[in-house]
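Appendix B, record 7
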Amino acid sequence: MHRHMTLKKHLYIALIIGLLLRLTCSYFDYGPFALDDYLHGLIPAHLLVDSGVSELPNYRSWLIVWMLSGFLKVGEIFGATTALEKIRVMLYGLGVFSLVGIYGTYLYVRNFSNKVFQLLSIYLVACYPLAVLASTRAFGETVAMAIILFGIGLSEDSRLRSGSQLQMILGLAVLGIACLFRFHVVLIWLSYVGCILLTTRFRFLIAIVISILLCLVLQALIDIESGRQAFGTFINYLQVNEGGAAGYGVTPWYSTWILVLGFVLAPFSLPLFRNFKILLKEHWVIFIPFIIFVAAHSVVPHKEERFMFPIVGIELIFLASLWSIEINNKTKVAKYFKWLFTILVIPSALFVCLVNFQSAAVDPLLKSQADQKNTLVLYQDWNTWSDFYKITLNQNGEAREIDLQNINESSLTQYLVGNKFQQVIIISSNPDRLEQMQKLADKKSNNVSCGQLLYASSLIDSIAFKLNPKHNKRRAPAMYVVCRAT
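Structure tokens (predicted):
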């Protein structure tokens, strides 16, 4: 970019690029990242808009569901009708919302004189593949990531530049809202407030107290609106996660640190860490909350990648700081990391935006528009979830587990001719069923017409399944055939 271009103009460019990347990712990568993004996000939001009735576990906040349902209502105004269109609309909304994180990054970095650091921070948060992918997943953690950047940007801009009590109240309240989306973010909030008190000698104490009260009132209102007692969601959350949620699986303490370092291309980025003391000196107020958050999660038995998503934006700011020092000093490390970054990150951006995770679990129904037609789903050895049928089958649709050997022209005719079903989708994820599926494909008769054998999977899912089939059952490719009456 032109060296005389103002930081605000770079912000506008970063927002445009970030938006395009997020919309692209939302369009092509709509499959489940895990289970929770669908089961506790997209599906409840769809049901809430469609029927006005939805359910969530009592330890889950309704905030993410209400947000997604709001996006969906807007999408329906603009003509979103099929289940696939509605899912994409909700992901579009998350991507657009995440742009507040880019603006928050701008508010933070404009308080530093290092121009290279400013630009790297804004563009990394806008374009870094992990940030783009995370921003378009329906998790409370990913929504919190953008809100954290916005809240820190507001409050740090107040602390370092304006000194405004009102801006500090707003910044801390915004950061508190991130905690309401995912309660474990309170570790960041508390440690950050402690750093503010330490560095400002209680100058913002009133702002801190007011922001705490605002967030407590908001959480109580959310619970009451959800039909729960005030703070009931948080209490249930603590009870469910008692003992570190070890019942969901245990991972070694060091896996969290490996994951967080991997977010910024370690071990390739390790030469940049020779500037760690400078990073700590300039950004210790946000580094301490970061390190406390990571350390706390490293000792909790149950760990998942998405638990670290809230700090991705902060970590990218740290990467920008370390990298900018090398660039300003014109070192060999700067040249090395520039080429490494280009080779690793730019291709991975395309990969992340175009690879559809766990598509085998959703594509057979979404691509067949099962929600638009009276559909019978017949499956064997297919890893599916009953809740997914609630948004991909209309009220007359059905799903049945069946032995594929019992499916023939006669049974298909019975289902399709003179019956309520407009189409039958036959699905299996078992490679041993290939021959049976091939016999059903391209079947034509006076009464029934079956299409070609289709495959639902992605490259990364196929690789993961082949490497470890036992622990990646949800990533098994799916074969499916769609049959209709002639």
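Remarks on this record: The radius of gyration is 25 Å. The chain has two domains: 7-354, 359-485.
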